[in-house]
Structure formats: C-alpha cells, structure tokens
Amino acid sequence: MIRLLTHFLWIFLLSFSLVSANAVAQEPSVIDLQEDSKWIPEIIQRLDFFVDTTNTLDIKKVASAAFQEKFRQISDPHIVYENIADFIWIRMTVANHQQNDHYSWYFESWGYDLDEITFFSPQGDKGYFPMKAGYDYPFGDRDILHKNFNYFLNIRPGETKTYYIKIRRSYPLTFSFHLRTNDEFITHSLNEYFFLGLYYGILLLILTLHLYLVVKLKKNLYLFSSILIFSSIWFSLGRDGLGFQYLWPSVPSINTITNFSSLTELFVIISTLLFSYFFVKKYKENPKLRSLTLAAIAIMVGMFLNQNYGLVMDAIPYMIISFLILLVPFTVGLRSLLSIGRFSLSYTLAYVCLFLIIAHSYTRAFALFNDPILNWYFVHPVIIVEMVLFSLSILNQIKYLQEEYKKANLEKTTALEEKNRVTYEMNNKLHQKVKERTEEIENMASDLAQKNVTLQTTNLKLEELNTQISNINQYLKENNDKLRNNVEEITKDMALMKGFEFEDFKKVFPDKETCLKFLSELKWQQKFICKKCGYNKSTESRNHGRRCKNCNYYESPTADTLFHKLKFPIEKAFYILYLSNRKDVELTLNELSGILDLRRETCWAFKNKIALAMDKVGHNKELSGWETLALVHLE
What are the angstrom distances between the C-alpha of 576 and each of 281, 587, 595, 605? Predict the structure, then answer.
C-alpha cells in the first residue's frame, strides 16, 4: 500500500512539473498572412518581447534557440512603462499562407520618434541583416526614406520567418506596428502625405495673411499672432516627423529640441499669452492683465527650465499647473471684454483649443483615444481650428476698430461742417460790405457828374475850368471802370476763396472740362509758341489743347505744368493746390483724404509736389495767386 502511494506521488510530481514547464515555455506568437489580407493593423499584441537590462546582447545571442523561452507575449501597447534606458528586443514571427506571390509585405513602425531602431531580417544561413535608423541618426540612413520606420519583409508564399527588432526609446511611448502589402503601403503613404500637405498649406496661408497685417498695420498684435502660427507649425513638424525628413535630415539633434524638450510647446504658450494681451488691449487698457501675462510667462519659462534641467515633474501635475497659469490671464482678459460688451466667442473657443493642444502634448503619458493614429493626429485639426478662430477674432476686431474710426470721422466732419458754416457767414458779410462800398463810390461818381453838368451850364465863362473839370470827370470815369472791373475780379476771387469746403469750390471748377479750360487760358494768355518748331500760331483742339499750324505738334493744357501726368481727377488737384496756398486753412492729410475721397498717400504726394513748386519759384503764400503755381514745371 505504501509502495502504491509512493508511485502515485511520483506520478503526481512528474505531472505537476510537466504542467509547470508548459506554463513557463510559451509558444511564440505567429502572425498569419491570409489569402485576402493586405493590411494587418496593430499587431503589437501578437508579438513577443524581452528587456535587455544589460544593453549588451547581440542578435546572435537573442536569435539562439536557447534564448527563445525568455521572450514574453506583449499585452500592452507601451510594452513596458519602466526600463526607459534599456533596449527592448521584439520577436515577430510571420507565416505567409497566401498563394499569390504578387504581393510584397512591409513592416511599419508608426511611432517614428524612436531614438534607435534596428530591424533584423533573416538571410538564411547568413544569419540576420541589420537595418539601423532612428531619431538619433541622420534621416538618410533609413532603408526606406519615409517619416515612419518601414522595412521590406521579403517573405514568399508558404514561408514562415522570424524577425527581431531592437528598440531604444526616451519615454514610454505607445507602439503602433502594422503589416502592409506594397500597394497598401503606397496608398497609405500618399494619403498621409496628401493630408499633411493640406494641413501645412492651410497654416501657411493663414500665416501669410497675418504677416501681411504685420507689414500693413505694423501692430504687435499681428506680430505675435504670426509667431503663434509659426510656433504651431514648428510644433507640428516636430511631432509628425516631416521636419526631420525635409528641413533638418542631417541634424538629428534638432529632434530633441522640437519633440522632447517641450520648447515648441513653450513658444506656443508664450505667443498665445502675448497675443491674448494685445488682443484685449486693442479694446481696453488693463494694467492688471499686463502684469498677470508677464507673470504667467515667467512661471512657464521657470517650469520649462526645471523640467529640463532640474527636478522633473510628472506629466499630469505639470499639465494641470499649466492650465491654471493660462486660465488666470485668460479669465481677467475675458472679464475686460465683457465689461465693455465685446465678448468674442471665436477668441474664447480658440483658447479652449489651446488647452486641448497642451493636453495632447502629454499623450506620451496618457492617451486621449484608443486608436494611436487618431490620438497622434488629433492635434492637427485642433491647431487649424485654433488658428482660424484667432484669425476670425482679429478680423472682428478690425471691423470694430473701423466702426470706431468711422464714428470719430463723423464727429470730425460735423465739427468741420460747423466751421465751414461760420466761414460762409463771414464771407457773406464781407461780400455785403464790399457791395455797399461799391454802391457808395458809384453814388459819389454820379454826384460829381451832376455837379459837373451844373458847373458847365452855370459857368460858361470859365471854359478852362470847365475843361479841367471835364478831364477830372474823365479820370473819375476811368477809375470807376477800373473799380468795377476790380469788383468783378474780387467777386471771382471771393468765389475761389469762398471756403475750403470741396462742394463750394466745385461750383467754380465743377469738372475736368472747366479746369482744363481755365488752365489753357492761363497757360497761353500771352501767346502760343510751339515747343517743337517755335511757330506762334495754333488751333485749339480737343480738351482745350493747342495744335501747331506749322508742324501739327499737339500740346495738352497739363503739359509742363504742376498737373503733368496726374493720376487722379484734376478738379481735386485744383482744390489741393488752392488749399495749399491759404494761410487761414490747415487741413490734416486724413481730413483732406476724407473730403476728396482719395488715399492719404495720394494727398501727401501732391502736397509735396506743390511744396517743391513753391520752393522752385520762391512763392509766398497769399490768398490769391495760387493759380501761378499751376504753371510750375518740376520735371
């Protein structure tokens, strides 16, 4: 009985040891390529791994039969959270059950920001062929020049091969491995690059708009909005790998700056804070907001330096503190906008997008989505939405400032109209006084004439005296005629000097035809001399020009005058010249631009031309005589 129990105990122990051995010796995971398969996504949990804590193992040791039992099946997309400084060996066994040998299969590691990855492809009796690449090596070292790590499997139908991958990383990233056929790989790459091209194209268009505003308006707001867009582009280039592929392929050290040190994220935050401050400042000055903005920038820079050169803070607390720091100036700025009734929905939503971008930048520590591709590219549309919303808030602000400018111009116009009204009344009074003085002189002349007749009829004997009186009468008559002519000239000058309101001036020079006629009479009031042949006879042609009867040379009224090659209506130029000669009128360029409906630069250029003409002829400003400047030729 005891012997039977002993045999039973040995059988039980042997069975238990065999079960334990089977539990330890794990069969390798196998990826089956079925007949209709073209893409096998997320194969990470169908692979095996081993952590090399010594960092000394080579492929010969790892691929040996005795070493295979040390591999364990991967159960998490991170593989392991710890052992950041150690190499991870991954074993991938692929069985090709397809009959069609037309397809070629590729392995893709979507986590492109690996410090180092070496793919070992079996070469039969020759061992394994290594292909090394990574973020610490030049981009040209890759076997396939793609932003992700891609390797040709070289597996024929009916074959089963085992591949090994050696990986070194700098943070516990989420691994995303795929198997694709050649046509699926090409289609996927083209689509990925196409949508990334659209993304950067949209951002570059928005950046171009903001740079135009910087050059055109020269305001700090648009400068920092441009820096914000540029920082977002740099942030994206560092995260999707296109910057390494196209901008700094031979300088892998830049990858550390753009992707791991959070420098690009710091630039995005600082530029957003400065943009937010100047955006609110455009509506309302707030010294408290300025102090809070500078304090937030200083704290973020201090946290950045501590994170990279001091005590490293965990991702979640760092993100929460960043949110709180940004929330304080944003809340104060939003209250300032609400206090003046200028709440901006686009500006508020853009700030929400910024919080999402900051949260996304910590997806190394946690994932927003289960799909790693969606989790990684989620930030791109958010950035576009943020830039569009910030741009809309700027455009709304520009519209608001234009309305305020129009309101201010309306007030200035009202004041100017009142000033014109007073001037018009004063001119009317002056005209009435001149009229009364003229009538008084005419009455005096009439009285003298009557007295002269009386003297002639009553004193015939004094013929000599009568002759003298007749001469005096004749003299007075000539003076009266001159005076009457002077009165007419004064009346015309008064019309020209009626005021500096453009509508009143247009009553004297209503259109181009009148201006050209006046300029023609002024130019050739003495006589015509042909500039080509010197002949002195001409015929008046169209637009009041003169055509030489000898050589048929045509000269326009504006030739060799201040209005030569004029680019805007001549009647407006007459008004500018008229105002430039007056001492009692001083209009700013903005007021003159508004009255004449001309660009400010156009008014300035012509006034400068008038000043040059005055300097050339030594002209002294008087209330009359402005038309003499019209004949000054500057070219």
Answer: 37, 10, 11, 11
